[in-house]
């Protein structure tokens, strides 16, 4: 089985509300506020941030656009953009899951919406080539989930039939797009729940 991992919120820590509460304590005093501010800042990974994800604009331009759109000072917006790499720390339970899947003989790939500067950081900082046979970052290929084009590119890149790909992602829209391409898919909530699902599919021993 070829198992395909999303990165943010799956392999690497990504919880925008708590992230913004740490980086912008003067603007975000609670997780509830963090959810509201994150919706403005990241636009559900569409808009300005979606272009950044796809590698169509760079960090300086996304800062300029977010500041112009929201009225937040450019320096504060830039501080958030700079802080993202430090937020993207490996999730220990997912790393254990990756190692167990490799030990069970599965081939692992990744398919991640990730701006190019952050993709470069992850590639340089963590053993991606040990964990994964291959992968695609949206910022490098100028396509992003949940658009069908990135799944088509992934099928060609990973090889095999779509039915032999099992996708783990924490966004329902990305899961739905994978299922529409005849992939198998599991919505990731936490590594423990996904492990139980993989055991039930006889992809891991209980």
UniProtKB/TrEMBL annotation:
InterPro entries named among the record's database cross-references: HAD-like_sf, HAD-SF_hydro_IA, HAD_sf, PGP-like_dom2
CDD domains xref list: HAD_sEH-N_like
Source taxon at top rank: Bacteria
SUPFAM superfamilies: HAD-like (SSF56784)
Gene3D superfamilies in UniProt: HAD superfamily/HAD-like, Putative phosphatase, domain 2
UniProt KW keywords: Hydrolase
A molecular function GO annotation: hydrolase activity
Record protein name field: HAD family hydrolase
Classification of source organism: Bacteria, Pseudomonadati, Pseudomonadota, Betaproteobacteria, Burkholderiales
């Amino acid at each position: 089985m070829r198992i395909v991992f999303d990165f943010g919120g799956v392999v690497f820590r990504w919880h925008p509300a708590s992230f913004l509460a740490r980086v912008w304590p003067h603007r975000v005093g609670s997780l509830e506020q963090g959810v509201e501010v994150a919706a403005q800042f990241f636009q559900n990974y569409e808009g300005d941030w979606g272009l950044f994800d796809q590698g169509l604009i760079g960090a300086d331009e996304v800062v300029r656009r977010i500041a112009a759109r929201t009225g937040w000072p450019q320096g504060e917006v830039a501080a958030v953009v700079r802080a993202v790499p430090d937020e993207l720390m490996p999730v220990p339970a997912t790393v254990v899951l990756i190692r167990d899947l490799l030990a069970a003989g599965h081939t692992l790939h990744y398919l991640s919406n990730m701006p190019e500067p952050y993709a470069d950081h992850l590639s340089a900082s963590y053993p991606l080539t040990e964990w994964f046979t291959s992968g695609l970052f949206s910022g490098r290929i100028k396509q992003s989930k949940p658009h069908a084009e990135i799944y088509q590119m992934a099928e060609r890149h990973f090889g095999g039939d779509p039915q032999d790909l099992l996708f783990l992602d924490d966004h329902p829209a990305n899961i739905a797009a994978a299922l529409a391409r005849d992939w198998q898919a599991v919505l990731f909530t936490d590594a423990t729940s996904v492990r139980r699902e993989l055991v039930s599919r006889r992809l891991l021993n209980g």
